[in-house]
Amino acid sequence: MGQQARPAVTPLGIAVLALLEERPMHPYEMYQLLIARREDVLVKVRPGSLYHTVARLAEQHMVQSEGVDREGNRPERTTYRITEGGRTALRARIAEIVRYPAPEYPMFPVALAEAHNLPKDDVLALLRERVGHLEADRADVATMITWADERRVPRRYTVTLPYLHAMLGAEIDWVNRFLDELASGALEWETFDAHTGAREADHEHHHIWSSRDEAELPPTRHGAVGTPPP
């Protein structure tokens, strides 16, 4: 029989295993630490999903119970520690993600690809609003970077912050350039009837993506973008 595939570790699973690499702890403490460290910016953290993740990791023998404690009238809390199997899975999963730029399917490119279904003025207004949100997010990250620097937090623990800051800056720059191109008329846009909202036909310039276009697309290195090589 072939070798059994290693269970996939979810982003929240990575966060849990990484916490348990620091020391044993119970799920509520994990939740508190993830929120305090603002790791909810990186992974979706909910108490219910965190408890479910810990239970699943226990079923997969990546973590195991170390004991049950109770303080006063509080509910019992089970403390978990990482196993050797969990440590191996954590390191392998981190290495895999760092090595391969796998597709993450963010929502913005999907909406951007179909933004031509909206009137030009709407797209301009929506993207300008988006830039405002992005700038606020980038300012928050800058504040976190300053906070970490002032407290001399070792940079190996905060490398995600300058990465996020740079990625937000890159998106802001791109969207602003796109806004300039669209607002100036350099980028042709579809027109819509002001009363009915229906798209107005443009027989001279309108082009529908065809199967012939698909056949002429240049190949990527490994087929789908970001797909690891065999």
In short:
This protein is mainly α. Helices cover 52% and strands 6% of the residues. Residues 16-91 form the Transcription regulator PadR N-terminal domain.
Walk me through the topology.
Blueprint: H1 11-22, H2 27-36, H3 47-59, E1 63-69, E2 77-82, H4 84-99, H5 107-113, H6 120-150, H7 160-184, H8 211-215
Antiparallel strand pairs: 1-2
Helix pairs in contact: 1-4, 2-3, 6-7
What does this structure look like?
The chain is mainly alpha-helical. It has two domains: 11-99, Orthogonal Bundle (Arc Repressor Mutant, subunit A), CATH 1.10.10.10; 107-184. 52% of the residues lie in helices and 6% in strands. It has helices at 11-22, 27-36, 47-59, 84-99, 107-113, 120-150, 160-184, 211-215, and strands at 63-69, 77-82. It has a two-stranded antiparallel ribbon with strand order 1-2. A hairpin with a 7-residue loop joins strand 1 (63-69) and strand 2 (77-82). Helix 1 packs across helix 4 (84-99), helix 2 crosses helix 3 (47-59) and helix 6 (120-150) runs antiparallel to helix 7. It is elongated, with a radius of gyration of 24 Å. It starts with 10 loop residues before the first helix and ends in a 15-residue tail after the last helix. Mean pLDDT is 88; it is low at 226-230. InterPro entries: Tscrpt_reg_PadR_N, WH-like_DNA-bd_sf, WH_DNA-bd_sf. Residues 16-91 form the Transcription regulator PadR N-terminal domain. Residues 200-230 are annotated as: Disordered. This is PadR family transcriptional regulator. It comes from Nocardia brasiliensis (strain ATCC 700358 / HUJEG-1).
